[in-house]
Description:
Shape: rod-shaped
Mean pLDDT: 95
Oligomer: single chain
Number of helices: 5
Strand content: under 5%
Low-confidence stretches: none
Helix content: over 70%
Amino acid sequence: xxxxxxxxxxxxxxxxxxxxxxxxxxxxxxVWTVAKNAYEKGMVYAYRDRRNKKREFRxxxxxxxxxxxxxxxxxxxxxxxxxxxxDIQLSRKALADLAMNQPDAFKAIVDALK
Length: 114
């Protein structure tokens, strides 16, 4: 009895991955084994960087809040300590946006803390 292989499903799986790596450089876009490795590595990076993105944005917000607070003679840690003491419920994302785009509103918050 001949060996039964599901060539249709195999071809679909290969086509799906080759479609995903379309646009990459060299053999990564058209050689099956290289493309499969490139695809898998890309998925690993995507998984990792979905988590790293959150860290990087938090760090950016902290830098912006720190820069805004230092204009008014306060460090980031002092500023956040006073924010928590006064129980002002604003996220770092919102505070960073205020510090960058609405300095008057940020100054009002700083004045409320002093």
